[in-house]
UniProtKB/TrEMBL annotation, chain A:
Coiled coil: none annotated. The lineage of its organism: Bacteria, Pseudomonadati, Pseudomonadota, Alphaproteobacteria, Acetobacterales. Signal peptide: none annotated. Pfam families: DAO. GO terms for molecular function: oxidoreductase activity. The keyword Oxidoreductase applies. It comes from the Bacteria. Keywords: Oxidoreductase. This is FAD dependent oxidoreductase. GO terms for cellular component: cytoplasm. The keyword Oxidoreductase applies. Residues 12-349 form the FAD dependent oxidoreductase domain.
Automatic annotation (TrEMBL), chain B:
It comes from Falsiroseomonas stagni DSM 19981. It comes from the Bacteria. The keyword rRNA processing does not apply. This is 2Fe-2S iron-sulfur cluster binding domain-containing protein. The keyword Oxidoreductase applies. One of its GO terms (molecular function) is oxidoreductase activity. The lineage of its organism: Bacteria, Pseudomonadati, Pseudomonadota, Alphaproteobacteria, Acetobacterales. Keywords: Oxidoreductase.
């Protein structure tokens, strides 16, 4: 490293990873007055931030981990304010619509399983979630041409959806507006102690220094967290997506794996392929299966043309819940990872960013510490 | 804006008026050669848009073609007498072109 201490740029916070989590934290810290750099890879990077489904979603979250449920609901409460800010920053509507969200059931077995889940969530204090039968669904969405197989759905009135690309763009704009730096183009390769600062080196030979480091590298979190003495197992879980041409409004509420965007596009999701591979190719078999199910919900979209399909990788921990921590050996170095980065953007830009600057994470983070993964062999996705 | 290098050999209808065309070229080329740049109005703001990529990727060249909506003009070969119009907003779904 040729750069001398005198010429090396110093920041209060360096965020490693400019995806949905890192950008939210970087924006939040910068908005609170910190000098922030967000370090990211180049255009070919694996980014769930640019390939996700856009739900701001609480109904499926927290089963088996109440802290995650509470953290999610706190984020949903903060979302209207975040939406207003990012829409202003992006110069276009992030299309956040808290219309309530659905989980469609297409046969008796699905209905029974969903009702069981809803009952369990209720007993855990998740009071807004309930089941709707077909008649109630049609009352909620008059004129929606639901297919005859739709028997009912789970419904949470606080759920909604947003445009994840506008969200990312708006938070990035907010980072820059608050004086932060966005430094894409080279992977971080090292984090070293440099007399009171952390020196971060990158693949292009450049380096910066920072008092605090936040590792938010998505599916690449594990090796980077290891550089600061943290064991954070994260694996990729692939999700495929379809978008159709833009259509007149046909589905007023978003559902798990089926939503109509503010622009009129129908987005159809989404696989959970847990094969350990970092490949992001789509497969005809999966796309056909996804489309077939969407058509059972809304037979009219059979006539819609598919415009694009893609796959992206969710960062998944062994128990499927987020992980937040400060390193015990490298003070000032934090890690943050989750597979619901859109939903949690509001708490990441808010209380999490504030906690990182203050040097102690919010209370929820205690239960979400990656130490819980020690010896964990059971693997599930929530 | 554009000058043809080959002669035209037929006409098509655009927004109710006849436009000279060459069979087999793309509808986008026909319209651009005739000075048309507004192919559609966007569903969100109603802004007028025209072709950007001319290779099927950007979906900015959408038109209504022979009664079918959201057709990419850059991918539609010209047939003599075809009838095209601007795509105004999103595809109107409920009265969808089942006949198509
Ligand atoms: C198909 C799909 C659907 C989804 N749907 C939803 C949804 O509906 N709602 C929801 O809330 N969430 C959803 N998600 C999850 C959400 O997209 C992720 O939780 C979120 O993007 C994770 O953010 P991240 O910043 O951790 O990772 P990413 O967004 O993947 O970003 C990681 C970043 O780190 C960078 N990086 C990696 N290594 C390095 C390095 N060495 N140096 C510098 N930078 C590095 C990468 O380049 C990348 O930019 C979905 C995900 C997928 C894949
Ligand atoms: S001009 Fe881009 S798709 Fe037709």
């Amino acid at each position: 490293m040729r750069a001398t201490l005198a010429t090396m740029e110093r920041f209060d916070v360096a965020v490693i990873g400019g995806g949905m989590v890192g950008t939210a934290i970087g924006y939040g810290c910068a908005a609170l007055g910190a000098r922030v750099a967000v370090l990211d890879e180049g255009d070919v990077a694996l980014r769930a931030a640019r390939g996700n489904f856009g739900l701001v979603w609480g109904q499926s979250k927290g089963d088996g981990m109440p802290a995650y449920g509470d953290w999610t609901r706190q984020s949903i409460r903060l979302w209207p304010d975040l939406a207003a800010r990012v829409s202003g920053l992006a110069g276009r509507d992030v299309h956040y619509r808290a219309t309530g969200g659905l989980g469609f059931c297409l046969d008796e077995k699905e209905l029974a399983a969903k009702a069981d889940f809803v009952r369990r969530r209720h007993n855990d204090g998740h009071a807004t979630l309930r089941m709707l039968d077909r008649r109630e669904l049609l009352e909620l969405m008059p004129g929606c041409p639901l297919g005859p197989e739709v028997l009912g759905a789970s419904f949470d009135p606080s759920d909604g959806h947003a445009d994840p690309l506008v969200l990312l763009h708006g938070m990035q704009a907010g980072l820059l507006r608050a004086g932060g730096r966005h430094l894409p183009g080279a992977a971080v390769t090292g984090i070293d102690d440099a007399a009171g600062f952390w020196r971060i080196t990158r693949a292009d030979g450049s380096a910066i220094e920072a008092s605090r480091v936040v590792i938010a590298a998505g599916v690449a979190t594990t090796p980077i967290a290891a550089m600061v003495g943290m064991d954070v197992p994260v694996r990729p879980v692939r999700g495929q997506n379809i978008v159709t041409e833009r259509l007149d409004p046909i589905l007023p509420l978003p559902a798990s794996a089926l939503r109509q965007t503010g622009d009129g596009t129908i987005q159809i999701g989404v696989t959970n392929e847990d094969d350990g591979s970092f490949e992001i190719a789509t497969t005809t078999a999966a796309l056909a299966r996804m489309a077939a199910r969407a058509i059972r919900v809304l037979p009219a979209i059979k006539a819609a043309r598919m415009n694009r399909a893609w796959a992206a990788l969710r960062p998944m921990t062994p128990d499927g819940f987020p992980a937040y921590a400060e390193s015990a050996t490298h003070r000032g170095c934090f890690v943050a990872t989750c597979h619901s980065g859109v939903t949690l953007a509001a708490v990441h830009a808010g209380p999490l960013a504030a906690g990182i600057l203050a040097g102690h994470l919010p209370e929820f983070a205690i239960d979400l510490h990656p130490d819980r993964f020690r010896g964990m062999t059971h693997v599930s996705s929530h | 804006m554009f000058r043809r290098t080959e002669p035209t050999d037929c006409t098509i209808s655009w927004e109710g008026r006849d436009i000279p065309a060459r069979a087999g070229e793309s509808l986008a080329v026909t319209l651009l050669a005739a000075g048309v740049t507004a192919f559609r109005q966007t569903p969100v703001t109603g802004t007028e848009r025209g072709p950007l990529c001319l290779m099927g990727a950007c979906f900015d060249c959408l038109v209504e073609l022979d009664g079918q909506q959201n057709v990419q003009a850059c991918l539609a070969p010209v047939r003599p007498g075809m009838v095209a119009a601007m795509q105004r907003g999103a595809r109107h779904f409920h009265q969808s072109e089942d006949a198509a």
